[in-house]
Amino acid sequence: MILGLSVCVGLAMAYHVRSRGREKSTDRRAGDRRARWSLALGFGIPLVVSVLRWATPSFDDGIDSAAAAFTAGTVTVGVGMMLVSSMVDWYYVLPTALGRFGRPIWALDDSKLAGQRRVAQVWVFHRGLCELVVLVSLSLFLAIVIVAVGNSFSGDKTLPTAFEALGGTGIAFAAVQYLAPRLNGALDFVLAAPIGLGAWVRWEDARGRERSGLVVDVSIRPGLKVVAQDGLTRYFVPLPEVRTLSAVHPPNTPDQRAAIVERHFGQKPPQPETATAVVGPPQPQE
To answer: Which residue ranges make up each domain of the chain?
Structure first.
């Protein structure tokens, strides 16, 4: 809990320092307030409950088994990880994509492709880590519940042992079956992403039809989210198939790509010149 709180506070401080002096929209300021309240409630309530419980004379009686403490720990870790992942999105990924730290993703040239890929890699990494931690926490919690149910039915050790063996095996199998397809390709993408946010890509679908669009989002599954030039048609490319995409020169203007990103994220991008700068060599004067 303390580690998660430290990460979130560090992200918030870095965001406010890097965005100092830049204009913030009303939606962004309202979102910042909600994020601060989420941090205060998400970490403050468990901390206060823990301190008050620890200060009571019956504290030792309340933690009468390692299972009780372990159950509380798994729930706290799972909820804390979801909150940390949300703060990474809010304080790093979205500001970077929308150009609050510099040039937005729709106005970057080829020399900035490494930065585009880095943001996408961080996005996939923290989402994958969140899914892994939350699923493990949930699996451990369910395993403890199954064993507790077995103990409540019989004083004999046979039934609890059977519950523990069958329940633990079933939970482990279900967790692996769920994670394996979702993490397939995610690790390769994190280590060496060929495509980043803001790239205009082209590829052929399973029927041989040519598709193209702007990469605006990336997740463990369904993968890259690509929005076509009309701003409405969406495609999803699984991470294992990302290497079939090729980055090409965008056919539209930075303003048109900015509108696509704004529609996707639901936030109005900042209005300084960085949001509308035309990337490319200067045009000859008449």
So the answer is: 2-16+35-45+66-190, 196-275
In the three-class reduction of DSSP (H, G, I as helix; E, B as strand; rest coil), residue 225 is classed as: strand
CB 31 within 8 A of CB 276: no
- The residue among 78, 90, 58, 97 whose CA lies nearest residue 4 is 78
Domain 196-275, CATH: 2.30.30
End-to-end, the C-alpha distance of the chain in Å comes to: 63
The amino acid occupying position 55 is A
Is the entire prediction scored with pTM above 0.85? Answer: no
State phi, psi for 212 to the nearest 5 degrees.
-155, 160
| Tens digit of each residue's pLDDT, the chain (286 residues) | 677 778 888 888 888 888 887 777 787 888 888 888 888 888 777 777 766 666 666 555 544 556 666 667 777 788 888 889 999 999 998 888 888 877 787 776 654 566 678 888 899 999 888 888 888 888 778 777 777 776 666 566 666 666 666 666 777 777 777 777 777 788 888 888 888 888 889 998 888 889 999 998 898 888 889 998 888 889 999 888 888 888 888 887 778 888 888 787 776 655 544 433 333 444 444 4
